[in-house]
Amino acid sequence: MIVAAFVFWCIVWSLVGYAAAERRQFSKVAGVLGGLLLGPLSVLMFLASGVTQGDRPRRPFLTSALIVLNIVLGFAAAISLFVRYLSTHP
């Protein structure tokens, strides 16, 4: 059951990350990895600035915040899955 949930998580959120990367014109690999790590919060990647369009300034602080958020939530998700696994397999 956990494996099926993990596979579903990977497929769905990596597709969301890819779509965000495609729309915001940044690296597709980064979009997929961000989608995997952020999960439901990967929708925030649609707000990240990609290639500048016209006079709109880039927002590097938002990109940096998303990178930190990716790392923190990725570790939190991994720990959560590990604890759940340990609680079901004594």
What is the compact description of this entry?
With 90 residues, the protein is an all-alpha fold.
**Fraction of residues in helix:** over 70%
- pLDDT below 50 for ≥5 consecutive residues: which ranges? none
Q: Roughly what fraction of the amino acids lie in strands?
A: under 5%
Give the CA-based shape.
Answer: elongated
How many whole angstroms does the radius of gyration measure?
A: 15 Å
Overall average residue pLDDT: 78
Number of DSSP strand runs = 0
Q: Structural class, judged by helices and strands?
A: mainly alpha
Number of domains: 1
Q: Count every helix, treating DSSP H or I runs of 4 or more residues as helices.
A: 3
What is the distance, rounded to the nearest whole angstrom, between the alpha carbons of the first and last residues?
A: 17 Å
Biggest sheet details: none
H/E element sequence: HHH
Question: Please, could you describe this protein's structure?
Answer:
The chain is an all-alpha fold and 90 residues long. Helices cover 70% and strands 0% of the residues. It has helices at 2-24, 28-38, 60-88. It is elongated. The two termini are 17 Å apart. The model has no long low-confidence stretch (mean pLDDT 78).
Output the keywords.
90 residues; mainly alpha; 3 helices; 70% helix; elongated
Write the layout of secondary structure elements.
Layout lengths: L1 H23 L3 H11 L21 H29 L2
Helix pairs in contact: 1-2, 2-3
